[in-house]
Design brief:
heterodimer
Chain lengths: 544, 368
């Protein structure tokens, strides 16, 4: 369809809307934002007549590639180190995708602009596409990859795992609370515009380098829909900026959304890219370098900063601090070490790091070896059962961390941990911003103003609380992370499948009592807690 | 000559043969190649089930930490309390159409091709030139008004409902209805545009006044607007797909437009409206399955039937009023191939039959 006829068609379609006089659509999901003075902004023009054939064509290419991968025996060359992490990633991502579909009526309810409603409805269908195409990719992995364990219980594992819960924020954040906070700022302005670059572009690059060209095929196809979504978000943001009353809320939401996305996405994708790859060419970009390109330059400098002239308060300090955490505070390395520490309660296997990996990390992140190298050597030494416990229960100079109450990634940069009594409970936070998110932002009042529509942090937020004071073997069994012989664990701290003696079983992990750091913290006296926290914070600067 | 001696050394990852194919080794779970966290309806799981079931988690199934975000006024996620209807197991509902992304795009792209080809052929054949003025007016006013119905339902009923259902299977089925409705509304609008540009006396803007002011269409507009105001997702889906679509939607599309167009020299409109009928047949299939599940629920079936009876006592009179108000348009075409009474009777027969399939009593209001 030519541009002229598309414009004409789009104008015609806009005639379909009308101002209701008998009743107005139910407001299921409220917002504290106001759009009374907002000028109408058009997103990208899209009509169903061109949309469906375009997407069908994209689908055909994806499914053709899938057939080709099977015929071409792609799995002969896939790195297990890489594909194991996909058991985690692909268990998480279909839920955020479908949540994005479910978020669209929230934005439609909140924004009085029919031009945008059309674009949001198209996005809804896109997101159904993304969720199901990703589930189908995972199904293909399960059917064709050497070790299907973990893929086979994917959605159950996602729903009961500590890492799944971290990822679940990325979906629940889209569909809950203030409609604009959730469906516009958190979902579209930050998650889609900034972080899909690392999720759907940078990570698939790494997949290809590890012999998996299906992940890039599927995710680049997904990413090709994102520009329309970004346009939807930008239009709503400009409308919100038109009213002065929205400014404090926008500032609040940009801070929350930016920081939470950083905490969650950089933790996960950073780990997959840095610790899931076998490609150790020195000229391949590290996650930090990718982040600088995709997030700092492409998003922050090219998208966010220009919005300052429209009055948006940009969280410059948090962008710089995210960069600081990635480059100087070892954020990704700490997360990877934490995931590896927790291997018995994972539904994927984590490969040990080798000398080649050490060289690469030291080259990309000078000082890496002195901080993390010894621990990974211990991980390698303790990889097999029989003579030792799982590494989390051995003395290797690593204290199991406190969980951040807000982002649920543990407080791994220990010197930054915040401990406060909030809502009558001692809670730990990975950072000042996560504390602010819980104590200030997600409340019914913000800076003296009523914010009844803002969301709340709910649920059993510390995963460890659910399993406090239980035997590790019972926890693993309860979670269902056991292979079909009824005793071998799905998670393993190595990739060796050829020798049953190397595979950990329930018996090998029995006898280790698992304690919740938060339960213990709340049982301490004031003096004990202060000493404990001081020691915990000091541990962050100590070389392991 | 191109100098080829000074080319940069290219850097690329080394491919390594890892023998990571299925079957390369035997070990525990090496043959565990099906999703094992849900029980498929039949012996072998379908692709639809695999890509849909449990993607939206539920604290009543595997979600151990509960929903981690809440609304200011209540729990987050997908609370079962967002409808008065009750089910012993919402997850038992599976879409009989088995919609997932491949089926959505294949089906809708096929419709787009059918519609596009039809409209191209109509232009080439000068098909509109043969329409009599009464028929041009009929299409201009009534099909023009109807496209608003499809748009309103697509955007403010189905798009809205797909946020609220307790399972991914329900919400995805409803999302597909939204796609159907919005696509169909746009097809009708673009047909309107074609007719405006054809060499006939067709006012492409007339639909706005008709929808906004014409007395015969106001009760229909009122029902559509009142539907969009319903907060209970299950009532909204019931009132729309079971009551409104049967007594007003199918009445207009199936029992009027599809019956009389050919007799008025129009072979284009039925092709378009037929796609809407096809969409509704699919949408009705899942709707029927869902409400059958609710009326047959061992624990809540009787309460659900009573609830649906209450909903019908509200929506059947409203929809019948809208249907009766449309009666004058049966007289507008030159060829009056069918009477309003015949059309309404046919719609009522199908409605009764649908209620019987769901296990509901025919409401007394239907005979008033």
């Amino acid at each position: 369809m030519s541009r002229q006829s598309l414009t004409k068609a789009h104008a015609k379609i806009s005639e379909l809307t009308w101002e209701p006089t008998f009743a107005t659509p139910a407001t299921r999901f409220g917002t504290d934002y106001t759009f009374e003075k907002a000028p109408k902004k058009d997103p990208l023009k899209q009509i169903m007549r061109s949309y469906f054939p375009m997407e069908e064509e994209k689908d055909n290419r994806v499914f053709g590639a899938m057939d080709g991968a099977i015929r071409g025996n792609m799995f002969r060359q896939v790195q297990q180190r890489w594909l194991e992490w996909q058991k985690l990633f692909l268990s998480i991502i279909p839920f955020p995708e479908i949540s994005a579909a479910r978020a669209m009526p929230m934005a439609i309810d909140a924004v009085p602009n029919p031009e945008i409603h059309n674009g949001l409805a198209v996005q809804m269908i896109d997101e159904v596409r993304h969720s199901t195409i990703q589930m189908n990719l995972k199904r293909l992995y399960m059917n064709n990859y050497i070790d299907p364990a973990g893929f086979d219980m994917t959605e159950k594992a996602f729903a009961n795992n500590y890492a799944g819960t971290i990822g679940r924020q990325f979906g629940e954040g889209f569909i809950t609370g203030d409609a604009i906070t959730a469906a516009n700022i958190y979902l579209t302005v930050v998650a889609e515009t900034a972080f899909t670059n690392t999720l759907f572009v940078a990570m698939p690059d790494e997949a290809a380098a590890n012999g998996d060209y299906l992940l890039p095929t599927v995710f680049h196809s997904v990413q090709s829909d994102e520009s329309r979504h970004i346009s939807n978000g930008y239009s709503i943001l400009l409308m919100a900026l038109a009213d002065e009353r929205n400014r404090p809320l926008l500032e609040r939401d940009m801070r929350y959304a930016w920081w939470n996305n950083h905490c969650v996405v950089d933790a996960a994708i950073g780990t997959f890219i840095e610790y899931g790859t076998k490609d150790r060419r020195k000229d391949r970009e590290s996650y930090a370098e990718m982040w600088r390109r995709w997030i700092y330059d492409d998003y922050y400098r090219s998208y966010l900063i220009p919005l300052e002239k429209y009055g948006l308060t940009i969280p410059h300090d948090l962008v710089e601090e995210a960069w600081n955490r990635i480059t100087n505070k070892g954020y990704v390395h700490e997360v990877a070490r934490f995931f590896a520490t927790g291997w018995p309660v994972n539904y994927w296997r984590i490969d040990a790091m080798t000398d080649e990996d050490f060289d690469w990390f030291e080259f990309k992140y000078p000082g890496w070896y002195s901080k993390y190298g010894k621990w990974w050597e211990e991980y390698n030494r303790l990889a097999y059962p029989g003579r030792n416990k799982p590494i989390a229960f051995e003395e290797v100079g690593y204290q199991y961390p406190h969980r951040c109450w807000t982002c649920m990634v543990p407080a791994l940069i220990r010197e930054d941990m915040v401990v406060e009594k909030v809502d009558g409970q001692w809670r730990t936070y990975c950072s000042e911003t996560c504390h602010w998110t819980d104590a200030v932002a997600f409340r019914s009042e913000y800076e003296g103003r009523e914010t009844p529509n803002m969301g709340r942090l709910t649920g059993f937020r510390e995963w460890e609380t659910l399993h406090h004071d239980k035997d590790l073997a019972d926890i693993v069994k309860d979670l269902g992370y056991v292979r079909d012989d009824g005793k071998t664990l799905i998670g393993q701290p190595h990739l060796d499948l050829d020798d049953p003696k190397k595979m950990w079983t329930l018996d090998d992990v029995r006898g280790n009592q698992f304690m919740s750091p938060n339960v213990l913290l709340n049982q301490m006296s004031d003096a004990e807690r202060e000493a404990h926290v001081a020691d915990y914070r000091a541990n962050g600067t100590k070389v392991a | 000559m191109v100098d080829i001696t000074d080319q940069k050394t290219r850097s690329f990852p080394k491919i390594e043969f890892t023998d990571s194919e299925a079957g390369a080794l035997d070990f525990p779970s090496s043959k565990s190649r099906s999703y094992n966290y849900y029980k498929p309806a039949k012996l072998r799981a379908t692709v639809y089930e695999d890509v849909t079931v449990d993607v939206q988690p539920d604290p009543e199934r595997h979600l151990t930490q509960g929903w981690i975000y809440g609304f200011g006024t209540g729990p987050g996620g997908y609370p079962h309390e967002w409808t008065e209807a009750k089910s012993s197991n919402w997850h038992a509902f599976l879409d009989p159409n088995e919609e997932w992304e491949q089926s959505i795009y294949r089906n809708n792209a096929a419709v787009v091709r059918q519609v596009s080809l039809c409209l191209e052929n109509a232009k080439r054949a000068g098909a509109y030139a043969g329409w009599n003025s009464a028929w041009v007016k009929f299409i201009e006013r009534n099909l023009g008004a109807w496209m608003h119905v499809e748009q309103g339902l697509g955007l403010h009923v189905f798009t809205a409902v797909q946020r609220s259902g307790p399972t991914n299977m329900i919400n995805t089925a409803v999302a597909v209805s939204a796609a159907h409705k919005i696509r169909f509304a746009q097809d009708l609008a673009l047909f309107n545009l074609d007719l405006s540009e054809a060499d006939i006396h067709f006012d492409g803007q007339a639909h706005r006044d008709v929808w906004r002011d014409a007395p015969e269409w106001q009760p229909t507009r009122e029902v559509v607007e009142r539907l969009t105001a319903v907060g209970d997702w299950c009532e909204l889906l019931f009132a729309t797909n079971i009551v409104f679509e049967q007594l007003v939607g199918a009445l207009f599309r199936s029992e009027l437009v599809m019956q009389i167009s050919a007799r008025n020299g129009d072979y284009i409109t039925p092709t378009l409206v037929g796609t809407g009928e096809h969409d509704y047949a699919r949408d009705l299939a899942y709707t029927r399955t869902l409400y059958q599940m609710l009326t047959r629920d061992e624990t809540h079936g009787e309460a659900n039937k009573a609830l649906f009876g209450q909903w019908m006592s509200v929506w059947v009179p409203r929809c019948l009023e809208a249907a009766h108000a449309l009666q004058p348009i049966w007289s507008q075409p030159a060829e009056k191939a069918i009477t309003f009474a015949t059309s309404l009777d046919a719609a009522k027969v199908k409605f009764r039959s649908l209620l019987e399939e769901i296990g509901l009593d025919v409401p007394k209001e239907l005979d008033q």
